[in-house]
Amino acid sequence: GQQVMQIPQYQHVQEGEDFTTYCNSSTTLSNIQWYKQRPGGHPVFLIQLVKSGEVKKQKRLTFQFGEAKKNSSLHITATQTTDVGTYFCWGDSWGKLQFGAGTQVVVTP
Amino acid sequence: DGGITQSPKYLFRKEGQNVTLSCEQNLNHDAMYWYRQDPGQGLRLIYYSQIVNDFQKGDIAEGYSVSREKKESFPLTVTSAQKNPTAFYLCASSIVVRAPGELFFGEGSRLTVL
Lengths: 109, 114
Prior knowledge:
The structure holds 2 protein chains of 2 kinds. Chain A is globular and about 40 Å long. By secondary structure, chain A is mainly β. In chain A, strands 2, 4, 5, 9, 10 and 11 form a 6-stranded mixed β-sheet that branches. In chain A, a hairpin with a 2-residue loop joins strand 6 and strand 7. Chain A has strands at residues 4-7, 10-14, 19-25, 31-37, 44-49, 55-58, 61-65, 71-76, 85-93, 96-99, 103-108. Chain B is mainly β. Chain B is built from no helices and 11 strands. In chain B, strands 2, 4, 5, 6, 9, 10 and 11 form a 7-stranded mixed β-sheet that branches. Chain B has a 4-stranded antiparallel β-sheet with strand order 1-3-8-7, with no helix packed on it. In chain B, a hairpin with a 5-residue loop joins strand 4 and strand 5. In chain B, 38% of the residues are buried. At the A-B interface, strand 4, strand 5, strand 9 and strand 10 of A face strand 5 and strand 10 of B.
């Protein structure tokens, strides 16, 4: 069956550094979404990518959808303490919906 | 303000008891979902509903039941058949299931079985 894999599972980042988290699917995705969950909170929508090769930016966050629509990445530049949380990708494989396991981000001041 | 309301936020249950978690939305969304989250893990889909009086099993439906008698409401019952029910339960909604767009989440219900 379809699987959406996220790597890394944990990411320790020094404040000011950049990092990237990846989401890989075994099947083609019609679209992919990214969510952020702060500790103790609920997931909050960040962005949706639909087109092959699509790149979208939100301030220090850059989201990319692969050409084959099987993978996606989230890149954060100049990490801040407010970036702490778990980042999930959510893939829609033509009606089959699945969250990745998430990347838990810890920021060291 | 539009949104999703889950209750209760915290719930304690003795083994062998059924418990029902409430989820209400005023976003006029057709689709509603229930997810389970265990510590340090991702979200696993329990059930989802695309329309009133219809719902489908997700990946981990065993030991759970749902109903969708009204568009705004999608309660989840955790039955005594669920072997490991202690978890954080999240309800979500979207405009539709196919090409759903953004998922809106409630604040969650944390269930602990004593």
